[in-house]
Amino acid sequence: MTQAGYLGVDFIGDHDIRPYLESDPKEFHAALKQVFLERNPEKTKIAAGLATGNLWVACEGLNIGDVVLAPKPDRTYAFGTVAGGYEYHPGTELPHRRRVEWQGTFDRDSMSPELARSASSLMTVFSLAPYVSELAQLTTLETTASVDHVLAPVDIIDEVAFQMEKQLEDFLVHNWSNTQLGQEYDIYTEAGLPVGQQYPSDTGPMDILAISKDRTRLLVVELKRDRASDAVVGQIQRYMGYVQDELLEPGQTVEGVIIARTDDLRIKRALTMTRGIRFMKYRVEFHLESE
């Protein structure tokens, strides 16, 4: 949410988080997750992890000079740059704030389909890094984030387009029920709202967090992207460790799956010595039919 000159969040109301901001992110999450659950005893550990993850990013993870967007009721987005550190304003609608220099707006219809889908996510905070080039044109702001690919609208989805893994992530989420994973798991929802895409953790956001249909197994889905094989195996292990330590309810277990476009012998060799993680390839096909 925004107020004049600010970007702000709530989540835990009038609770001073300043003592935790310069601590290790794991300590931040652990302390404030407990505060959230005490204030919201009906909520799950996953809801608490989502709240504290978004709280940390908004209040500590954003750097001065970062570009931020905020949706407005008229289908436009305000844009600006972070101009200050965390401020605590108890007794207000947005007690946890960062000063922002709001510089203008642009219409949602001018956004690429990929950016529009991400920007309409029900998550409070999401990364704009994959869209840095597009945002530079929409906002006329200079951005310094580096990305491996520039995303653009696609009319026909083919193998070349899906080399851009952000599109794969969006496609997988929007077509989840038609996939093999979708027969066994659902992307995690909280209060009926999907929150499992880019779920925050203290070591970075998970690509997808899902739960088995019998609610006994959480699944961490990680796309290989352009990272080294050892790096992606280590990353999913860290995410699974976070889920095990912070999110599991009694009787639940955690599993993982790495998805890549091609076979990867290094990943397969590593996974033979790792329990609970499997490897999957994706393949996209399209067909032309005469009427």
UniProtKB/TrEMBL annotation:
Keywords: DNA-binding. Residues 192-280 form the Endonuclease NucS C-terminal domain. InterPro entries: Endonuclease_NucS (IPR002793), NucS_C (IPR048301), tRNA_endonuc-like_dom_sf (IPR011856). Coiled coil: none annotated. One of its GO terms (molecular function) is DNA binding. It comes from Arthrobacter echini. This is DUF91 domain-containing protein. It comes from the Bacteria. Transmembrane segments: none annotated.
